[in-house]
C-alpha cells in the first residue's frame, strides 16, 4: 500500500516554514533594541514569569555580635505576548516575475518591524477585565514626565536624575523624528547659530550618554528616556514561508512573530516632549492620549495628571502600524525566480525542486 507523505505529494500539500532568529530578520525592532530578552512564549494565554529579588540593605555588625536574620523580598514580572502576522496573496504569474518575490518578502519583514515598534510604544491597556496583553511603554501606569525640553537640556537632566533616584541608569532615549530634529536645532546661546548638540558627527546618535533611537512609531514631538534593564521581554522566532493555494492559482507569502514585554520598574522610565506636541493627526497614532491631556510634572505620574481625560483617552482611535519605510531594492541571484528573501534569508519556492 502506498503511503501518502510530504515527500511524494506536490509542494502545495506541505507548506514550507522557515524560522529566523529575530535579531537577524528584524534588527531594528524596538523590542529587541530596548529590552532585556528573558525567553520565548508560545500562545496568547501562557505568560513568562520573570522572577527577581528586590534590593535590600546589609547591616553593620560589630565584632562578636550576631546578624539579624531577615527574608528576601521576592517579586516577579509577568510578560504576556501578542502575535503579529502578515499574509500577502500573489498570483502565480506575478510571483514568477523578476524581483517580485524578494521585494514582497522585504515589505512583509518591514511590516512586522513597523508594527512591532508601534505596539511596543503605543499599545493601549486591555479594555476587558482580566484580559492580558502587553501595554505600550508610553501608556504604562506610573511613568513620570518632565514636560517640555528646551531651550536647554535641563529637563532631560531632570529625567536622568529621576531614573537614577529609582535605582536605574539611563541608557536609552527613543524619540520621534520631529523631536530629534527640534533637539538638534537647540542653540548654545541666545542669538547663536552654533548647535547645542553635535550634528551629523555620530554614526549612532547619543545624548547625555544615552543611545538615541529615532522612530516614526513615536508620536510627534514626544520621547522617552529609560534604563532598558527595567523592561523585560519574551521574543519568539520569526516564522516565514509561502504556500500554493489549492483552490486558485495563487501563492500566499506569510510571516508571523510573537512578542511581549513588561515594565518591571516604571520609575526608571521618564517621558518628555520637544517643540509642538502631537498634532490632531497624531492623536490616533498616540492613543490613548486625548486632546486635553498634559504631561505630568516631575514626581507626578501621567495617570494622575490626566485626571478625567483618561476616560476619553480610552475611546481614542488606535493605529497599530507605523508608515512603511522605503528599503533598498533587492538584487536577486540567478536562481531566485520564484524565491523570496526576508532580510537575506532565502525562502525556497514551492514551484522549484524540493
Verbal overview:
This protein has helices at residues 22-25, 30-33, 92-95, 100-122, 154-165, 177-184, 302-306, 309-313, and strands at residues 16-20, 36-39, 48-53, 74-79, 81-91, 144-149, 172-175, 206-207, 210-214, 222-226, 231-244, 250-263, 269-274, 340-342, 345-347. With 354 residues, the protein is of the alpha+beta class. The chain has one domain (14-54, 74-322): phage-related protein like fold (Alpha-Beta Complex), CATH 3.90.1690. The protein has a six-stranded mixed sheet. Strands 1, 2, 5, 11 and 12 form a five-stranded mixed sheet that branches. It has a two-stranded antiparallel ribbon with strand order 3-4. It is flat and about 85 Å long. The two termini are 24 Å apart. The model is unreliable at 278-354 (pLDDT under 50).
Name some characteristics of this structure.
five-stranded mixed sheet; 8 helices; 354 residues; disordered C terminus; alpha+beta; phage-related protein like fold
Amino acid at each position: 500500500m502506498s503511503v501518502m507523505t510530504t515527500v511524494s505529494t506536490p509542494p502545495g500539500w506541505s507548506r514550507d516554514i522557515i524560522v529566523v532568529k529575530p535579531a537577524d530578520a528584524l534588527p531594528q525592532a524596538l523590542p529587541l533594541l530596548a529590552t532585556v530578552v528573558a525567553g520565548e512564549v508560545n500562545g496568547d494565554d501562557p505568560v513568562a514569569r520573570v522572577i527577581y529579588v528586590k534590593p535590600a540593605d546589609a547591616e553593620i555588625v560589630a565584632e562578636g555580635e550576631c546578624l539579624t536574620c531577615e527574608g528576601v523580598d521576592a517579586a516577579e514580572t509577568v510578560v504576556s505576548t501578542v502575535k503579529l502576522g502578515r499574509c500577502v496573496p500573489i498570483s502565480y504569474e506575478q510571483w514568477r516575475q523578476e524581483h517580485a518575490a524578494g521585494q514582497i518578502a522585504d515589505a512583509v519583514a518591514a511590516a512586522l518591524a513597523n508594527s512591532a515598534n508601534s505596539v511596543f510604544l503605543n499599545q493601549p491597556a486591555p479594555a476587558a477585565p482580566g484580559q492580558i496583553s502587553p501595554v505600550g511603554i508610553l501608556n504604562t501606569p506610573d511613568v513620570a514626565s518632565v514636560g517640555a525640553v528646551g531651550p536647554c537640556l535641563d529637563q532631560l537632566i531632570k529625567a536622568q536624575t529621576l531614573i537614577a533616584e529609582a535605582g536605574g541608569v539611563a541608557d536609552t532615549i527613543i524619540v520621534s523624528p520631529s523631536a530629534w530634529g527640534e533637539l538638534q536645532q537647540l542653540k548654545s546661546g541666545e542669538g547663536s547659530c552654533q548647535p547645542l548638540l553635535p550634528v551629523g558627527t555620530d554614526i549612532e546618535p547619543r545624548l547625555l550618554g544615552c543611545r538615541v533611537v529615532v522612530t516614526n512609531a513615536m508620536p510627534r514631538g514626544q520621547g522617552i528616556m529609560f534604563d532598558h534593564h527595567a523592561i523585560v521581554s519574551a521574543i519568539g522566532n520569526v516564522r516565514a514561508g509561502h504556500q500554493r493555494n489549492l483552490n486558485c492559482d495563487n501563492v500566499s507569502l506569510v510571516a508571523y512573530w510573537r512578542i511581549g514585554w513588561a515594565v518591571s520598574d516604571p520609575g526608571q522610565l521618564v517621558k518628555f516632549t520637544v517643540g509642538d506636541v502631537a498634532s490632531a493627526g497624531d492623536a490616533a497614532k498616540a492613543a490613548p492620549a486625548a486632546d486635553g491631556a498634559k504631561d505630568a510634572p516631575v514626581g507626578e505620574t501621567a495617570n494622575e495628571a490626566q485626571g478625567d481625560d483618561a476616560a476619553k483617552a480610552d475611546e481614542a482611535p488606535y493605529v497599530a502600524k507605523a508608515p512603511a519605510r522605503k528599503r533598498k531594492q533587492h538584487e536577486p541571484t540567478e536562481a531566485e525566480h520564484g524565491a523570496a528573501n526576508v532580510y537575506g534569508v532565502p525562502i525556497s519556492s514551492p514551484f522549484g525542486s524540493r
